[in-house]
From TrEMBL:
It is found in: Cell membrane. Belongs to the nucleobase:cation symporter-2 (NCS2) (TC 2.A.40) family. Azg-like subfamily. It comes from the Bacteria. GO terms for molecular function: purine nucleobase transmembrane transporter activity. This is AGZA family xanthine/uracil permease-like MFS transporter. Keywords: Cell membrane, Membrane, Transmembrane, Transmembrane helix, Transport. Its main location: membrane. The keyword Aminoacyl-tRNA synthetase does not apply.
Length: 443
């Protein structure tokens, strides 16, 4: 049955190979089970409930990717998108998390419409590739900055705006050791290296507040940094259907819905293209295999995320780990999907992981996302300047939206003023109108 449905022989793979690939992809991606609740809990969402939502979304949508799109890609709440949800929408704009979840839902609906009616093709072609590379890299820098600030490695400084934290602090020392361990494991291509790094850093943090150092002195809110809360618990479904659908349709939130939808769209497409290139998963037209079905799955993941209570779901580039192990069919994603389910009952165990243990993972993920910056032609100032603005404004303004907006606007203006209007499509001008509107509405 598996042979017939997934055409294993046609793709020159076996059940054993697909199983190993599924386990490998899961180990490379499972850090999101801890990291996503750690980020969204800073927006006021309950840790255990976000963990349940993360597992459910990862299970259902990875399963859909495997069975419907038949691609060896895992789907889970996206890094960058969860940071945008927490730090830009909820904390930055002061929007209630229930309303932000509603915006996630409507972004998914918009993504679905764009996918069904193939409007996505026009939008994707409208966004210059250099800007896509810059935005992806800018989000990587943003995630890295969040990791550093969570660990108090980067702190506020009244004289210089930012500075390095107290290097004698036991928490910061533990973070740096954890970052070194994680970096070595990832550099040596150890499967599940990020997860091993999280576990190692958590273990190293156990003495803090017990045997040495006072964690409460640096506002971690408890004497001991790591506290045992038990092993098992029933899943927490308290975030289910907590989204505010009506409130999220206000005019002021249209830019947020837009940003969620299009950031997700760009992220998904870059993942599909990257994985297709790595594994030669192209169709007869030279496009990534089953691209329409894959994008529909991604759109469902974003819509479902709002209902379950988490940030938008997206295809994970870490799926390439399983593909390197020989995964070629949707069976890889199906196997990985089922590996998520047991963790729905482990929220007490996973809640012991402190923010300094997930911080190294954020820094490493940021490094992964910086790769596209090498594709930008920095010798062309008409392209380099807009890309620079998009790249640096995302972390500097603590807002993915601002980086995207000023990247689009500066590209359009520079290209027009230098007589290269052909590089600015009519669709991009329409997007610019929305961008200008969001600047006005947002202030």
């Amino acid at each position: 049955m598996l042979e017939r449905y997934f055409s294993l022989s046609h793709h020159q793979t076996t059940l054993r190979t697909e199983t190993i690939a599924g386990v490998s992809s899961f180990l490379a991606t499972m850090y999101i089970i801890v990291v996503n609740p750690a980020i969204l809990s800073q927006a006021g969402l309950p840790f255990g409930a976000v963990l349940t939502a993360t597992v459910l979304l990862s299970f259902f949508c990875s399963l859909m990717m495997g069975l419907y799109a038949k691609n060896p890609l895992l789907v889970a709440p996206g890094m960058g998108l969860n940071a945008f949800f927490t730090f830009t929408v909820v904390k930055g704009m002061g929007i209630a998390w229930q309303t932000a979840l509603g915006a996630v839902f409507w972004a998914g609906v918009l993504f679905l419409i764009l996918s069904i009616f193939n409007v996505r093709t026009h939008i994707v072609k409208a966004i210059p590739k250099p800007l896509r590379y810059a935005i992806s890299s800018g989000i990587g820098l943003f995630i890295t900055l969040i990791g550093f600030t969570n660990a108090k490695f980067i702190v506020g400084n009244p004289a210089t705006l930012v500075g390095i934290g107290n290097l004698k602090d036991p928490v910061l020392i533990t973070f740096l050791v954890g970052l070194l361990v994680t970096a070595v494991l990832v550099a040596k291509r150890v499967t599940g290296g990020i997860v091993i790094g999280i576990i190692t850093t958590t273990l190293l943090a156990i003495p803090i507040g017990r045997w040495w150092g006072d964690a409460s002195a640096i506002n971690f809110g408890q004497k001991a940094l790591v506290n045992w809360n038990g092993l098992l618990a029933s899943p927490d479904f308290s975030l289910l259907f907590q989204l505010d659908l009506g409130g999220s349709l206000s005019l002021a939130l249209f830019p947020v819905i837009f940003a969620f939808a299009f950031t997700d769209l760009f992220d998904s497409l870059s993942t599909f293209v990257g994985v297709a290139e790595a594994a030669d998963l192209y169709d007869e037209n030279g496009d990534p295999r089953h691209i329409k079905e894959s994008l529909l799955t991604d759109a469902v993941a974003t819509t479902l995320a709002g209902v379950l209570g988490t940030s938008p779901g997206t295809a994970y580039i870490e799926s390439a780990v399983g593909i390197e192990q020989g995964g070629r069919t949707g069976l890889t994603a199906v196997i990985a999907a089922f590996l998520f389910l047991p963790f729905m009952f482990l929220s007490p165990l996973l809640s012991v992981v402190p923010s300094i243990a997930t911080a190294p993972a954020l820094v490493i993920v940021g490094a992964f996302m910086m790769k596209p910056v090498t594709k930008i032609d920095w010798s062309r100032m008409d392209e380099a300047i807009p890309c620079l603005l998009a790249l640096v404004l995302i972390p500097f303004s603590y807002s993915i939206t601002q980086g995207i907006i000023f990247g689009f606007l500066s590209w359009s203006v520079l290209k027009t003023m230098t007589g290269q209007t052909k590089d600015v499509s009519p669709t991009l001008w329409i997007i610019n109108i929305f961008a200008i509107g969001s600047l006005i509405w947002g202030h």
